[in-house]
């Protein structure tokens, strides 16, 4: 493998340096005026040092301001020509499913195009992974040609710096905010504090100061995956009857199980396709064992297991609150007090709307989304995420005040709203 990779790389370099030097000069002369930042980044990159020029990634068809649309916008497959090992690793990790998972979620198709294809919302981070020709054509038809997938989500073009991708701030751009505040959790945890203190000279080099990459991308792997997945659900069901019932309730509200029959739906196939959840004990245990091995670099195996087991336990308790809230709203649907919004798969709460504003005038499909539904989605997407993810990121404040405490407030609000709705319905 290494010999084949080395030969391939040498051939690429020979090809590019043999006929591209002049073209690079022309590219640099022009783009030094039109986009100087790109040129400066390339000039300080390893690509420039090794003779990998503009045409290597962008082709030779574009040569003037008039034909700029002929420039090839490289995706991960182009990077794979030289970085085969990293590409193969990436293709097995969850980042490869970024764009696919975004489009598998119903809420994506309620949002304005500028937030998705334009990259100023969910699409700005989920623009990862290999797109189909149909997806690319759809983007081009809408005029969003610059939202092409490539490795520059972490290695920003055109410097493509390894040090940048290894810095936790490279992860901050996406892993922060409403439904996945991992940056906030890590940076204000003991792990994050030690990292920043070390950078300021308060800890010697070599002292333990774990970053995002230490735990999730160890030894330079690009195959990132977690035991619980993004949705925080897994199969098989737990042995405890109450926990099992609560997880079934959540799976129904995710549309993964039919709330009437309990049978799997087409959404389960989508969850499988994008590797969004661990759906058997073997795949879950594999990721858990990998994390335990990482934790064991600093902590004893017994301590690491105890901490991760505590995260599992709090998730079960959070799901007790979540299931009670879902059942409260589901009864309102069942009794005809809440009308099923257009686009909902069942006459039942649907958490994958990911929507939080009432009466969205720009989208008629959401006009009938009740306020109690919005509180339920907020409880799942915002506060439940904090309650259990904060345990795995060792952040006491997020675990309690931003997670568990807010879930109890949400449940109280949902019960009060349900009581009011029933009273008004009787009148």
Describe this structure in words.
This protein is mainly alpha-helical. Helix 2 packs across helix 3 (36-43), helix 17 (241-253) packs across helix 20 (301-334) and helix 20 runs antiparallel to helix 21 (371-392). Among the domains are: 101-132, no CATH class; 221-426, Hydroxylamine Oxidoreductase, Chain A, domain 2. The longest helix has 34 residues, at 301-334. It has helices at 2-19, 21-34, 36-43, 46-49, 54-58, 76-80, 84-91, 98-104, 113-116, 122-126, 133-141, 162-166, 169-172, 182-187, 190-199, 212-216, 241-253, 266-273, 281-295, 301-334, 371-392, 396-426.
- CATH class of one domain equals Mainly Alpha
Q: Stretches where pLDDT falls below 50 for ≥5 residues?
A: 2-7, 9-23, 356-362
Helix content: 55-70%
Any idea what the shape is? globular
- The count of helical stretches stands at 22
Helix-strand pattern: HHHHHHHHHHHHHHHHHHHHHH
Rg calculated over all Cα atoms? 24 Å
CATH H level, superfamily name of one domain: Hydroxylamine Oxidoreductase, Chain A, domain 2
Overall CATH architecture of one domain? Up-down Bundle
Task: Tell me the structural class.
Answer: mainly alpha
| Strand portion | under 5%
Question: Which fold name is given in CATH as the topology of one domain?
Answer: Hydroxylamine Oxidoreductase, Chain A, domain 2
Largest sheet: none
Mean pLDDT: 87
Distance between the termini: 74 Å
Give the strand tally: 0
């Amino acid at each position: 493998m290494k010999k084949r990779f080395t030969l391939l790389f040498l051939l690429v370099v020979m090809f590019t340096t043999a006929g591209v030097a002049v073209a690079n000069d022309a590219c640099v002369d022009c783009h030094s005026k039109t986009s100087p930042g790109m040129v400066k980044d390339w000039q300080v990159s390893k690509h420039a040092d090794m003779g990998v020029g503009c045409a290597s990634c962008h082709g030779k068809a574009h040569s003037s301001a008039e034909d700029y649309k002929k420039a090839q916008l490289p995706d991960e497959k182009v990077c794979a020509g030289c970085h085969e090992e990293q590409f193969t690793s990436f293709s097995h990790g969850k980042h490869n499913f970024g764009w696919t998972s975004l489009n598998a979620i119903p809420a994506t198709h309620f949002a304005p195009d500028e937030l998705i294809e334009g990259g100023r919302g969910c699409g700005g981070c989920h623009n990862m992974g290999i797109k189909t020709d149909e997806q690319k054509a759809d983007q081009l038809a809408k005029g969003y040609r610059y939202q092409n997938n490539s490795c520059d989500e972490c290695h920003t073009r055109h410097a493509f710096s390894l040090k940048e991708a290894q810095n936790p701030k490279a992860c901050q751009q996406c892993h922060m905010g409403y439904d996945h505040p991992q940056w906030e959790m890590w940076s204000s945890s003991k792990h994050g504090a030690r990292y920043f203190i070390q950078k300021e000279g308060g800890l010697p080099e070599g002292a333990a100061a774990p970053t995002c990459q230490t735990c999730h991308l160890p030894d330079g792997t690009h195959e990132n995956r977690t035991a619980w997945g993004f949705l925080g659900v897994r199969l098989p069901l737990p042995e405890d009857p109450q926990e099992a019932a609560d997880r079934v309730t959540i799976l129904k509200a995710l549309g993964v199980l039919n709330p009437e029959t309990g049978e799997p739906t087409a959404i389960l196939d989508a969850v499988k396709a994008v590797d969004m959840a661990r759906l058997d004990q073997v795949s879950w245990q594999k990721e858990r064992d990998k994390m335990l091995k990482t934790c064991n670099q600093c902590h004893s195996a017994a301590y690491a297991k105890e901490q991760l087991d505590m995260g599992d336990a709090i998730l079960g308790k959070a799901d007790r609150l979540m299931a009670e809230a879902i059942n409260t709203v589901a009864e309102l649907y069942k009794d005809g007090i809440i009308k099923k919004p257009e686009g909902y798969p069942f006459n039942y709460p649907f958490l994958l709307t990911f929507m939080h504003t009432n009466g969205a005038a720009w989208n008629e499909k959401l006009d009938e989304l009740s306020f109690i539904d919005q509180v339920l989605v907020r409880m799942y997407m915002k506060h439940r995420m904090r309650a259990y993810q904060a345990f795995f990121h060792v952040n006491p404040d997020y675990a309690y005040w931003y997670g568990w405490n807010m879930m109890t407030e949400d449940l109280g609000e949902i019960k009060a709203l349900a009581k009011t709705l029933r009273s008004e319905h009787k009148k």
